Amino acid sequence: MAANVGKKLINSKERCVDESLEGTAASHPGLRLLSGHRVMVREDVASVRAAAKVTLLSGGGSGHEPAHAGYIGSGMLTGAIAGSVFTSPPPADILAAIRAVGQGNPAGTLLIVKNYTGDRLNFGMSLERARSEGLHVDMLVVGEDCALTSHDKTAGRRGLAGTVFIHKIAGALAEQGRSLEDIVKVASQAASQMGTIGISLSPCSVPGSGPSFQLQQDEFELGLGIHGEAGFRRQKMTSADEIVSAMLDHMTNPDNSTHLKIPKGSRVALMVNNLGGTSCLELGIVGRAAIQYLESRGVAVQRVYTGSFMTSLEMAGVSLTVLHLDDTITACLDADTSAPAWPSHLSGVDRTSDVYIPAPQHIQAEEGGTPLGQTVPTDQAQVLEKVVQRVCDRMIDCEEQLNSLDRASGDGDCGTTMARGAKEILAALSHLPFSCPHTLLLTLAAIVEKDMGGSSGALYSLFLTAAARPLQSSTDPAAWCAALHAGIQAISRYGGAEPGDRTMLDPLSAAHRTLSTALSSDRTALQALEEAVKAAEKSAQATASMPARAGRASYVGADQLTQPDPGATAVAIAIRATHDAVKGN
């Protein structure tokens, strides 16, 4: 395949439409293909005809999936006709579809057609032939494009994604048993109160061909059609908010002959349509911007539909459709349907302008209130404050040392990460609850989780959170030893590492074993802590000769790991700083 031809997951360009239709039918038990035609109909089409309700057909060129077959189902279309990619379907297929859904049904059939010359001609020709056979058929042409208008009276406004709204409205009315004339009247009125405008960030390519047009990397096109037809302006890329404002400004500009009036107090439905290659993340941002734009003008956005409704192959871009609502149209949008591509879960729910609910507050002791854990005397609280300050000071002092160690096994930012967390703790020092160790550790956990970032922030937050629990009921040396053990277990459980894997767990585990043994003998707490410091420093140094079995260092060759692990070194520095602060006091 030539280099300038867009890559596609197809078997052949000649059979791609047929195979796509076969896949759609195979994936949805309620859909069936008419043999010998590119026509999809409801599996229960015979019972639909027998019910004497109006049947609905739509269609057009392929490449707009899920349109049009995705909208077949009770409460929407009875069938759909697919042409070749971006090509109107031939009259023979359209006529076969009319016969399939209309023969023996006195209620009649409505053809919903997008306003393109080929579609109007081919569907119109088929309508006339069906009428000559005695079938009751009518046609509604949808052209809601607000981008540009043609001076050629045979062209006019293009039919875009808003056509899907008409499928839903007409389908709901047909399901109610309304007459063909009533359906045409209501759906036509809705179509006249609707506008769509699109933008593209990149072109699409028809199978077997190159890009349909060219856009520079820093450009977007405003007002293009769903086949890649030219829009009315190209602009330099800017923010999503500014692009959405440009789209809706043009849609509602009275100087634009195809503009849509959306006065203050209007009730509307909004469709944010993916043209094929736009990420869900971007769709959310565009939807937010469009809602905010409309609501800032006093418009009530009561229904929002976001997703892929009428695409243009892989084109990166979006279209926005605004539809005026009244009680009838709203009820039609909310009515049940089995059509697989319609987002039925959104029906019947008025959206609100408030997207937030209050977040639950962290439960902690208020100043002067009852603490959540065991409290300590003032002198012990002062020691804890000195410990926290000394540890943070040392982390800041050792930033470059730890970064240097990390360059050999990671991305060289271990020291910067530790220093960032330390600086945030120091900034909050005067407000930390040193009189309650349990609450103190939880507060420190929240700070490092939020401000340290990365895996280090998560690991230290886990450690501190788990370590806080044993300090709820006691703050004696044994409780602090138990807290150390609980923190180690949490890191191992969720981080996946074990002692011996060349991580921060090595000095932590060595310190805990030594501290536990020393406290069980006749050592004082300070003596036990001193022995634990030596064990931690020895263990951290020993990581220089350990194979890395966890963390980022595990991706580095063993011959490059000749220095101590930076995370283990940081732990040893912190434990040494703890000892020095306690001893100095």
From TrEMBL:
Q: EC annotation?
A: 2.7.1.28, 2.7.1.29, 4.6.1.15
Residue spans making up a coiled coil are 519-546
Residues where substrate binds: 61-64, 114, 119
- Write down any Gene Ontology CC term: cytosol
Pathway in which the depicted protein is active: Polyol metabolism; glycerol fermentation; glycerone phosphate from glycerol (oxidative route): step 2/2
The record's listing under NCBIfam families reads: dak_ATP (TIGR02361), PRK14479.1 (NF011049)
Tell me how this protein assembles: Homodimer. Interacts with IFIH1 (via the CARD domains), the interaction is inhibited by viral infection.
Question: Mind telling me what this protein is named?
Answer: Triokinase/FMN cyclase
Q: Which organism's genome codes for this protein?
A: Branchiostoma belcheri (Amphioxus)
Q: Which gene encodes it?
A: LOC109475013
